[in-house]
Write a structure and sequence with these properties.
Glucose Permease (Domain IIA), about 425 residues, Helix Hairpins, 2 domains, elongated, single chain
Length: about 425
């Protein structure tokens, strides 16, 4: 009886304690859930900040590398042009040295003939026992002797003049030879500089290809001197004071291959820019290249047919506007990768795709031959190349054959154009 009573008394007390502890347990569980959720949110936020920082670092590195590539192209062009000038000067001085040497040999032969003539004359006088006419009084000489005296003096004068000319030519030959050796030494140093710049350029191109692929995958455009920007607001102009100078950002003027009055022959090779044609209206999109996939080509790589002309070029090759126009679109992702679309007169549009960096801003007016981008390997690409497309409108589906289109504008596209690289 007592045990039952105890139980009856204890059970209500236990139920009351449990009921009293339930809110505290629920609050503790909710607090734990909130803490875990906050911890997950904090980790996600840290991961997001780290991801944004990584993207920014990749974009900044890509911008720096692309600026280095553009500068090295400029530097390579300058060094190559100086090297060619020095080689031309060496050839000119070498030719002048050869000309002087031939003249010197001629004078020496003339001098030798005059000496032999004077020797024969002296031997004849000696054998005859006659005094030289120059030692006899003039009044004692007859007409024939006077004539011979004039001949002796003429021979002596000619011999003296030939000897003087020979000495002058010998001095000039030595000077020209010394100048030729000096110029040849300078050309060798410049040739070594060309090799060094090209080595650095090759390394920078390889680095650019590695770092740009991730940036393009993030949907960003590489802008040398400005990091990376998303396509809608990308501003690719390079103001004074930025890592890439304005002269490099603008690029060179077009070559004579694009002038309306030109023949459309191969352009002068571009190392940071070819020589300019002041009134060129159209030019090639790249200076040195090998044509690869052509317009209308079918294959598994394209949904229907190829809509442009591909130019096989290394990553980081300067891409030029084929004609004056306005930048109407910059895209930083998708099948074309980084791409630039220009609008020209009479409703023509040109697109430059699979780029590694953009050098022109949306809305910017560009001139024929101006650098607008660096070639790359972004988007749906099987290797480094430039995809060049000509359209009748801004959207896809209106493409025309770029080769025929440029040919009608006096610009030919040989299957291959190599850079000038004449070296000793």
């Amino acid at each position: 009886m007592c045990s039952l009573t105890v139980v009856l008394c204890v059970l209500p007390a236990c139920d009351g304690a449990a009921l009293a502890a339930a809110p505290a347990a629920a609050e503790s569980g909710a607090r734990g859930t909130r803490d875990r959720a906050a911890d997950r949110a904090d980790r996600a936020d840290r991961a997001d900040r780290a991801d944004r920082a990584d993207r920014a670092d990749r974009a900044d590195r890509a911008a720096r590398v692309s600026a280095d590539v553009a500068r090295l192209h400029q530097r390579a062009g300058e060094v190559a042009r100086r090297y060619e000038r020095e080689r031309a000067a060496v050839r000119r001085h070498h030719a002048e040295t050869e000309r002087v040497a031939r003249a010197l040999r001629h004078e020496r032969r003339t001098t030798e003939r005059l000496r032999q003539a004077a020797g024969r004359l002296a031997r004849e006088r000696y054998r005859s026992g006659a005094l030289p006419y120059a030692l006899l009084p003039l009044r004692s000489l007859g007409a024939d002797a006077h004539s011979r005296l004039r001949g002796d003096r003429t021979l002596a004068r000619r011999l003296t003049e030939a000897q003087a000319r020979g000495r002058r030519l010998a001095e000039r030959e030595r000077a020209e030879a010394a100048r030729t050796r000096e110029l040849a030494a300078r050309a060798r140093r410049l040739n070594a500089d060309v090799h060094e710049v090209e080595r650095k350029l090759a390394e920078a191109r390889a680095t650019l290809r590695r770092v740009v692929s991730r940036v393009a995958h993030d949907g960003q455009c590489v802008v040398p001197g400005r990091g990376a920007r998303r396509a809608p607001g990308a501003r690719a102009g390079l103001p004074a004071g930025s890592p890439l100078p304005r002269a490099e950002a603008g690029g060179p003027e077009p070559d004579r291959a694009g002038s309306r009055t030109g023949t459309g022959g191969p352009p002068r090779a571009e190392r940071g820019g070819p020589r300019v044609a002041p009134r060129a209206a159209w030019t090639r999109p790249v200076a040195a290249y090998t044509l690869s996939a052509g317009f209308g080509r079918a294959g598994a790589r394209w949904a229907h047919r190829h809509t442009g002309q591909d130019f096989a070029v290394p990553v980081g090759t300067p891409v030029r506007a084929v004609g004056s126009g306005e930048v109407v679109s910059l895209r930083c992702g998708g099948p074309y990768g980084m791409s630039v679309l220009l609008r020209h007169a009479r409703g023509a549009y040109t697109q430059y795709a699979h780029l590694s960096a953009v050098l022109a801003a949306r809305g910017e007016r560009v001139r024929a031959g101006q650098w607008i981008a660096l070639s790359g390997d972004t988007g749906n690409s099987t290797g480094p190349h430039l995809h060049f497309e000509v359209r009748r409108g801004p959207k896809s589906g209106s493409a025309v054959d770029p080769v025929s289109w440029l040919r009608r504008r006096a610009v030919s596209l040989p299957a291959r154009v190599d850079e000038e690289r004449r070296r000793s």
